[in-house]
Amino acid sequence: MTTLTLIWIVLPFLVGFIIYLLPKGDRYLALGGAFASALYVIPLFVQQTPINLRLLDNFGVSLILDPLAGFFILTNALVTMAVIIYCWHSDRTAFFYAQVLILHGSVNAAFICSDFMSLYVALEVIGIATFLLIAYPRSDRSIWIGLRYLFVSNVSMLFYLIGTVLVYKANHSFDFIGLRDAPPEAIALIFLGLFAKGGIFVSGLWLPLTHAESESPVSALMSGVVVKAGVLPLVRCALLIEEIEPIVRLFGVGTALLGVAYAVFEKDAKRMLAFHTISQLGFILAAPEVGGFYALTHGLVKSALFLLVGNLPSRNLKELQKQPIQTSLWIPLVMASFSISGFPLLSGFGAKVLTMKNILSWQEIGMNIAALGTAISFAKLIFLPHQPAVDLDHSPRKTNFWVAIAILLGGLFVANTVYYEAYTLENVIKPLATIAIGWLAYWLIFRRALVKLPVVFEEFENLIGFMGLILVLLFWMAVA
Amino acid sequence: MLEAFVLATILCGFLGIVLKKNLIMKIISMDVMSTGVIAYFVVIASRGGVFTPILGDTLRTNYADPVPQAVILTAIVIGFSIQALMLVGVIKLSQNNPTLEINEIEKSDRL
Question: Are the Cβ atoms of A131 and B102 closer than 8 angstroms?
Fold first, then answer.
């Protein structure tokens, strides 16, 4: 299993570079690389016992492979495959596919790291690969969005590095578990880095602009998997160290509320999805024990939604209300929206029930409001007018689009079996009630609401400035 | 003492990133900050002593800790490659935004 793991880690990078050498086979190679990851996950779930690997002695790389990581890796594999298939007939060059695969490999590496230094390297590679993908169209706007992303992530990673060396100073090792004996400033610095990378709370406000302005496949990758590379280490720290768990849970609730608060008022479809990603990351952190399953369902749904919304005639929801969309697009859109609102029969339901079961009593009010907000914001997509398509388009591009969507939505149906115990009467009624109240609120209030929340917090300097504030906040929380 | 200076460097870099208006200046500030972080690793490594840990004829006890130094090498390489990438991006941006003032870029971005 050790050799297999090592091969699996290196494979995406290797294939990524081979794509440069054999640009003709770019798509096949990229798809093969992602598929290998999907296959590798199977033994992880079968085996159930975590595998701990320690490479290169005590100060080297330590990896942990368990079902929790398995969920994240599976999400990564499925989303990457869907994105590659989606792009199959576009005129993207081999460079794009190589970057997608390198990104895939580095995200996998970040998921299985269990020491801070390897995690740092993985996160930085993710940063570079993401920048190249965002800036792929080479327009001024895309370059600026990418630069902004790279800036925010690099500054936060510098703080993270200081925290890392403080952990080393206290333990003579970089392992996650060392955070327990580390001084509070180490916790604050490391968490700041992970928050900014993972889009948590106000540090995550770089995310809406970045995710909304990138091309649809890139947004799908970023929202589906890349942000989770910052979230999984937080979940791991929370599971390892009891003192940290309340901090993570609290920020989970805060993030979930902040995200939906923006999402319900947003009039732009892609921006709404991006804000909603922030809130869903909060759900993952609010119940760290079951975060893996939630991350899987969210990753699949969010990528499908980004790909679908990218094919709508407009991004503005007000315009879409006047302009009927094709029913064939509307049906998967509704399925994805239902799953994310927690409607039974789709795995979003199981994930929500599982999360709600594992939250503490003080979190309950916040998380229920966040769930309600989710139902409200997705009512905007569900109640879009639609009509049967006039011209039936049978180009291969269209077929690939449907294959990609089928992988993602099919995954949602299959994932249902993970937690089939959720189907009890009591469990079914609660999400239905939440959705009903959400839809009612949408029709009565939010459909007409003209509130526009300020974008001032998303300005570049404020993003960096907020890092300082969050650092102070985290420090005092860690001291307390 | 040395630690205080290093932390001051990091702080200077951070303030530079927030306060400077020009994109190039921001990138240079980021470099100052990362220099500070690298120096901090070196300072931590030299807690036990400053001698290079190479086995020789005279055995010493006050060796420097090689692990943070080895590890920071990776960070230096990553840092400079990111900076190179950013500067390439800035070159591209400067064709249409010759001043590289961040307010101007954000304003034209929002239109």
Answer: no
